[in-house]
Specification:
NEDD8-activating enzyme E1 regulatory subunit; 2 domains; elongated; ubiquitin-like modifier activating enzyme activity; two-stranded antiparallel ribbon; about 60% helix; Ubiquitin-activating_enz; Rossmann fold
Length: about 200
């Protein structure tokens, strides 16, 4: 395949003219909307609109549910889907238990299992809290593995340094995404299983 510089320049001018035309159409549309909603038509600059148009193919609209929405009105179909899926089920169990730990801590002013002498008493407390969380999520009558509940009690809220560092790195990465408005942030609750070295994002 051969080409000449003038052909390339001609093609470039065609693309530039089309991009400029699209940008003008977008600018008119934006000003029309701003005027209709009672905003200053010049409040969004042409340079900003041009940058927006330039990056349109990389744009992604992200809609998130707040933690309040996640807790008060969980999407039952998603919850059931995660519990039914073999890969997601373990992460879902940890999600429920983490919320149950918060409930026990709120009721007894301490994390379950933090005192060795009270682990035996804390296991049924944590299990009851987990059943309560499951019920709130629309899974009445459901329960979790006794072994997993016991393990979380034995864990007693400990923070293993490598795992804490990893979670801190993930959180920092998400903050950078939001601040720079580059790359797509995680949409949901991030669960990291340090036992199997697996992570999962649960969009609840």
């Amino acid at each position: 395949m051969t080409s000449l510089t003038e052909y390339y320049v001609s093609l470039q001018k065609i693309y530039q003219a089309k991009a400029e035309s699209d940008c003008l159409a977008m600018e008119h549309r934006v000003k029309s909307i701003l005027k209709r909603i009672g905003r200053d038509p010049e409040s969004i600059s042409r340079a900003y609109i041009k940058t927006f148009c330039k990056n349109t193919r990389k744009l992604k609209v992200c809609r998130y549910r707040s933690m309040e929405e996640e807790f008060s009105s969980p999407v039952l179909s998603e919850v059931q889907k995660y519990f039914a899926d073999e890969d997601s089920c373990y992460a879902m169990n940890f999600y429920v238990l983490l919320r149950a730990v918060d409930r026990v801590a709120a009721s007894y002013s301490r994390l379950p299992g933090i005192f060795d002498s009270e682990i035996v008493e804390d296991v049924p407390r944590l299990k009851a809290a987990a059943v309560s969380v499951l019920s709130d999520m629309g899974l009445k009558g459901a329960s979790l593995s006794e072994d997993l509940v016991t393990e979380v009690c034995r864990f007693a809220g400990a923070e293993i340094h490598p795992v804490a560092a990893f979670i801190g790195g993930v959180a920092s990465q998400e903050v950078i995404k939001l601040v720079t408005k580059q790359f797509v942030p995680l949409n949901g609750t991030f669960i990291f299983n340090g036992i199997d070295l697996k992570s999962q994002v649960l969009a609840l």
